[in-house]
Design goal:
It is a single chain. The chain is an alpha+beta fold. It folds into three domains: 6-99, Nucleic acid-binding proteins (OB fold (Dihydrolipoamide Acetyltransferase, E2P), Beta Barrel); 102-286, Hypothetical protein af1432, CATH 1.10.3210; 294-327, no CATH class. Helix content is 45%, strand content 21%. It has helices spanning 53-59, 109-122, 126-137, 139-147, 161-179, 185-194, 199-202, 213-233, 240-252, 268-293, 316-327, and strands spanning 14-28, 34-42, 45-51, 67-77, 80-90, 203-205, 209-211, 300-304, 309-312. The chain is elongated. It starts with 13 loop residues before the first strand and ends with a helix. The protein binds fe (ii) ion (2 copies). One fe (ii) ion is lined by residues 196, 220, 253-254.
Length: 328
């Protein structure tokens, strides 16, 4: 285990520790020398780092994604902490503890999994029960489902994130179905559980969370479609229209062509699943951003690349709201 984690670093601190080199940009200085802008990360977060001429040479022998041993000092630059790197070398794989580098859900994963199983037990349609049974009995798939992240960066980008996101989507669709009572809950639960299952293979999560080769080439929508189509194929007498509906919900859950959906939702359950998925991912983006800026005394976040806006991150807002409520 490491002894220095990024979220605990303070200005002025001397650093001698392993980090993942998550970004490396080499630049030329005005006087002709070189310097490097880096991003270092571990399971607690990421930090920018800068390295001058003397370190640039050792940077040529390391790639992004490598674990590197960094010696340097933490300082504050533009209101943010950064590490000024004095030396850097690649760490051997044998000296790496993966738990140091991958963030993990704060929730109890066994409990989250049980919540998903509870939803599965509510399904009454015998064909969908068969489909979910095949899924839950695939121990290899379930083991990966329990640890997979839901994203590389965008939302729930931590171990167990896929399961937490899936449970949230199921909770949301359950509530929405109380308003739109004609919606088929069996379909919502089944497709809710399976909608992002392709993420199990879209990402690799050993030293860092990154796209797998399959993920880069196919993406989780297509991987999930193919996986669920294969599960259905092994179930005798699975109705054709039900097969189309489940698969359509996987293909359309991103809701818009520009968000990677090959099909737009064409029935109510597919539309509900899309909005639940969209809501949970966006709420997570906002709450994760708030968390990142906690204690930074900033009013606005940097531009959020997925939400395409700056977010209001000042912490005293909630206190003011509570105060206003008391006044009233
Ligand atoms: Fe998705
Ligand atoms: Fe999703």
């Amino acid at each position: 285990m490491k002894s220095q984690y990024i979220e605990e670093l303070k200005s002025g601190q001397v650093v001698k520790e392993n980090f993942i080199l998550s970004r490396k940009i080499l630049r030329e200085k005005k006087d002709g020398g070189m310097y490097a802008m880096l991003e270092l990360s571990d399971r607690t977060g990421s930090i920018e780092a800068v390295a001058w001429d003397n370190v640039v040479e050792s940077l040529r022998s390391v790639s992004t994604g490598d674990v590197v041993f960094v010696a340097g000092t933490v300082n504050e630059y533009n209101n943010r902490l950064q590490i000024v790197v004095q030396s850097l070398r690649r760490t051997n794989d044998a000296d790496i503890d993966p738990k140091d580098f991958l963030p993990e859900t704060e929730e109890d994963t066994d409990k989250v999994f049980e919540e998903i199983v509870t939803y599965r037990k509510k399904v009454k349609d015998p064909h969908l029960i068969s489909l979910l049974d095949v899924f839950f009995k695939d121990t290899r798939l379930i083991t990966q489902f329990k640890v997979a992240p839901a994203a590389k960066r965008a939302h729930h980008a931590y171990l167990g994130g896929l399961m937490v996101h899936t449970r949230n989507v199921l909770d949301l669709t359950e509530h929405i179905a109380q308003v739109y009572t004609s919606a088929n809950r069996d379909l919502l639960i089944t497709a809710g559980i399976l909608h992002d299952i392709g993420k199990v293979y879209e990402y690799q999560y050993i030293k860092s969370i990154d796209f797998s080769t399959e993920g880069r080439m196919l993406g989780h929508v297509v991987i999930g479609y193919e996986l669920v189509a294969r599960l259905i194929q092994g179930i005798p007498d699975f109705p054709d229209i039900l097969r189309c509906k489940v698969l359509h919900m996987i293909l359309s859950h991103h809701g818009e062509f520009e968000w990677g959906a090959p099909k737009l939702p064409v029935f109510v359950e597919a539309l509900i699943l899309h909005f639940a998925d969209n809501l949970d991912s966006k709420v997570a983006m906002m709450t994760e951003t708030l968390k990142k800026y906690k204690g930074h005394d900033r009013e606005w976040s940097d531009f959020h690349p997925f939400l395409e806006r700056e977010l209001y991150v000042r912490e005293d807002d909630d206190e003011q709201t509570k105060h206003d409520e008391v006044e009233r």
